[in-house]
Amino acid sequence: MILPILLYGNPILRKKSEDIDKDYPEIKQLIENMFETMYHSKGVGLAAPQIGLNINLLVIDASPFAEDDPVCKDFKRVMINPKVTFEGTKKIVFEEGCLSVPDIHENVTRYNDITVTYLNENFEEVTEKLSGDRAVVVQHEFDHLQGIVFCDKINPIRKRFLKSRLNDISRGKVKTSYRVKTN
Ligand SMILES: [Zn+2]
What is the pTM of this model? Predict the structure, then answer.
């Protein structure tokens, strides 16, 4: 089932999400719906707050980035209760976008190398070291679980420049090819 995606300005996107356990109702169906919603809207990642749930759950399929970064080809993941730790000091600048912030693409600086520990869809613990595009995607989605949206991290001058467009998005004054929801 394709779910509507919450737009920038919705208070759910600003709340810190909570861990879940195996007993969370209909988790398999929820994960399936999140993938379906993400593919339909041509995203590479989707975090649960974006579909209105403040729980620590995200889905990723970074295969569209495989042309630039071949290791992204098989980077399809479900991450439950992820914890991200940062490795090294190297930073990477990446032009990011977000399904909750339609039509805005801006450079964001993030860590190039991270370690992420999470539970997969079978609630088995996984630890992965990631770098480059994969690390960027995980940090972007992980931020959603902390109530952070990528445009919080852009250059303040650019942010001022985008202010009226962000205001329009928060009022639903934006065209998208997928279902969205303001408040
Ligand atoms: Zn996003």
Answer: 0.97
